[in-house]
Amino acid sequence: MSVNIWEKEPLFHRLGHNEKTIQRVLRLCLNDLPELINELLSVLKQGDLARSKDLAHTIKGVAANVGAEELRQLAAEIEVLMSAGSTAEALERGYYLVERFEPLRSQLAYYLDSLIPARPNIPEQSKILEQPKNEQGEEALIGSLITLIHKLQAAEYVQLTEVEKIHPLFNSDEQILYLQVIDAIQYFDSQQALKQLAKLTIVAKLKIDL
Amino acid sequence: MVKPTIMIVDDVAMNIQSLVSMLEADYQLKLATSGALCLSLLQDYELPDLILLDVVMPDMDGYQVCEAIKSNNKLRHIPIIFVTAKDDEGDEEKGLHLGAVDYITKPIHPAIALARIKTHITLKLQYDSLTELAEKDQLTGLYNRHYFYDISEKKIAFAKRHLIPLSILLIDIDFFKQVNDQYGHMIGDEVLVEVAKIFSNNARQEDIVCRFGGEEFVILLDHCDLYAAQDKAECLRRKIEQLIPAGIDISISIGVAQLNCDDPKEDITFLIGEADEALYKAKKGGRNTVVLSEVLLQ
């Protein structure tokens, strides 16, 4: 019996048909899976039982969450084979999993391409530089940055929109830091986000002091 | 109304995102991308009402995190639900055996998961209310006598083992009966609440401030010798003198005693007895004053 590469409907149902969330989840999946799969293949080749079992398990979970049924089944098979110590057979399934990721990637990318991008249009560098600077704006910006820092320090969930709404005041250097903050927040990496936010706050503060 | 807080612990961003989208409307969310980060956040910040915990994570897996939480007295009451792609019965049994209240397998079915989460959040909030009722005085919100005895025994044992100075203040509002008789019990209650606020607002986090009964209060001070306790008592006495709750001039008398760590017989009852004697002297000596117990001084 053939297995579906991507079962779209259960995913949409699970995420309450929220298009923005669906896009975000699929983009994260497309970003993360290739790395996870490469690492799995590499540890399978090394015969690292524990790590390959964990990675197969993680891929199984990610695949299950996006409705990638075929990939989920393959990862589950590898997890079982590695638990039984069947490394050669697991490696074979690993190669097959790499092969079968491609049609899934195409389907997900095709779907995402058909939609408006989830990420907001960040102003081009030239437009950012054109923006007038005023101290009040910078101070309000620092206030917003500090609020974000406090939330991240307390590990509170930060919506991407909270970060997106403070970007227009940045110059080009700050823009790079800002994009790193966005990336870190998308990956819920509060440590990295905090690091970049702290730099951003210092730069913004220096501008006022000067 | 404040939304209950859920902490999501998962090393895969996509899994967190799926849970966030399901929960963000009804709950405040805290996120941790590793077991170590979860434990560190639980030490430093306000505790969540529930933890959704992934099992397979690098370095420290969910089972280890669960064990660490359940063996910590401060954290053990936080319900944990495992959220995992491990669908084996043995894994589920292990998770529940370690103290998790539930086990949800991926892919998550939102309606079912939300119902289970809601049930456990409700139970946790009910537990919190019951604990509050059992430990706190309903009028003032301070700890009650029952809790005070319970915690004091532990604090005294700790102080004796580590030779840490520990003192208590036994406090009585002067002529409180007259307040009740002259202004009525409603005003009397108002006075008690205002006085209690002064005590708790001026306490350190580790101090135990308790309504001992009627108009009597007791404060247990860790890492505090007799003279530091005297200063604290004097400070509170002055603050109450200036308070004028419900427009009434009031004052307090305070008896102060310090634990003798070398005396194995000395327990909380003994210590309260010493403070009570000092308080009696304060009352006899004209009230609105602080008197030290002479036991340790001798």
Structural commentary:
- Chain A is mainly alpha-helical and 210 residues long.
- Chain A is built from 10 helices and no strands.
- In chain A, helix 4 runs antiparallel to helix 5 (87-113), helix 7 (135-153) packs antiparallel against helix 10 and helix 9 packs antiparallel against helix 10 (190-209).
- Chain A starts with 7 loop residues before the first helix and ends with a helix.
- In chain B, helix 10 (268-284) links the parallel strand 9 and strand 10.
- Classes of the chains: A mainly alpha (210), B alpha/beta (298).
- Chains A and B meet through helix 1, helix 2 and helix 3 of A and helix 1 and strand 2 of B.
Question: Biggest sheet of chain A, in brief?
Answer: none
Order of helices and strands of chain B: EHEHEHEHEHHEHHEEHEHE
Low-confidence stretches of chain A: 125-132
Strand content of chain B: 15-25%
Rg of chain B to the nearest angstrom? 25 Å
Low-pLDDT runs of chain B: none
- Helical amount of chain B: 40-55%
Main beta-sheet annotation of chain B: 5 strands, parallel
Kindly state the mean pLDDT of chain A as a whole number? 83
Helix segment tally of chain B: 10
What structural class do you assign from the helix and strand content of chain B? alpha/beta
Q: What distance separates the N and C termini of chain B?
A: 55 Å
